Amino acid sequence: MKFDLSILAKHIPFLLEGAWLTLQACTLAVIGSLVLGLAVGAMRTSASPLLNRLAAVYVDIFRNIPFIVQLFFFYFGLPEIGIYIDAFTTGVVALSIAGGAFTSDVIRSGILAIDPGVIEAAQVSGLKKSTIFRRIILPIALRASIRPLGSVFVNLILTSSILSTITLNELTGSAKIVASNTFRPFEVYFVLLVAYAALTYTVSILIGMLHRHLNRHQAEGAV
């Protein structure tokens, strides 16, 4: 068989639509998982046993159930009890909830790694707990967690390919349709492979740049 990418030329707009849908879903899911992760991470480091336990249960559940099972529950299961959500919203919500469980662990680790002396100094200065968390603890924890958070976000992008199983024509779903129409799965999935590699590599580079920017003062002080 001759390798020929030219046969995909007329399908490029359709594939780009799928890529744009993937980008939208992943962007919203990253934001959602970060918000959830921050809330749950704060709960897991809270002095309240109830909040701590609730957060731990959430993390245990969504870290130990296959994502495709979670996705099918939201998309195929919830309508049985009268809750109907479109495929795109379902995908974003499912990715956000699943990603939030992993993000919360990263945030929690970042919070626990903070020097207790920093927090004690802030308390002595008379700052409120909410102010200390918002202005001191959270920025330090996020700065230390950028790289592991980047790994979580890259994994979300890769996991988004499963959204094609609920009829969402994101990048993978679009590629499946093109492959079935052209009978050229090798070329189609080669392009898909390259597209995901380029997307995740770009995100990794951006995360690395952000990490260096946020930690530039530490690097300068070490010189």
UniProtKB/TrEMBL annotation:
The residue ranges of the ABC transmembrane type-1 domain are 19-207
Report the main location listed first in the record. Answer: membrane
- Quote any Pfam family the record assigns: BPD_transp_1
Tell me the Gene Ontology biological-process terms attached to this UniProt entry.
amino acid transport
Q: Report the GO molecular function annotations.
A: transmembrane transporter activity
Q: Which residues cross the membrane?
A: 20-43, 55-75, 81-102, 149-168, 188-210
Question: Keywords of this protein's UniProt record, alphabetized?
Answer: Amino-acid transport, Cell membrane, Membrane, Transmembrane, Transmembrane helix, Transport
Membrane association type:
Multi-pass membrane protein
**Does the keyword Transport belong to this entry?**
yes
Which Gene3D superfamilies does this UniProt record tie to the protein? Answer: MetI-like
Where in or outside the cell is it found? Answer: Cell inner membrane; Cell membrane
Q: Which InterPro entries match?
A: AA_ABC_transptr_permease_3TM, ArtM/GltK/GlnP/TcyL/YhdX-like, MetI-like, MetI-like_sf
Gene Ontology CC: one annotated term: ATP-binding cassette (ABC) transporter complex
Task: Look up the coiled coil feature and give its residue ranges.
Answer: none
Cited function = Part of the binding-protein-dependent transport system for glutamine; probably responsible for the translocation of the substrate across the membrane.
Q: What's the family?
A: Belongs to the binding-protein-dependent transport system permease family. HisMQ subfamily.
Protein name stated in the entry: Polar amino acid transport system permease protein/putative glutamine transport system permease protein
